[in-house]
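Give me structure tokens for this 74-residue protein.
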Amino acid sequence: MSAEEIAKQKWLARLDAPTWRQAATTMANVANEAADIAALTDDCNSGIDEACELLSREEEAKRRWLARLDVPTW
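Here you go.
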């Protein structure tokens, strides 16, 4: 095994796989939610009232969640 391969194996052994797995899962969930919101937006723009109502509730929930965050406003 070359020195480069040994260094690569050592580097890979130091990675925190559970943390990366959790990050990948979180990113996949966010992407799915974004796709759902995009589909709802398309449906709402097409005149489907139920989609517009769901988007409205989603926006209100987001506002409530953001209001609870303890962060400075810009």
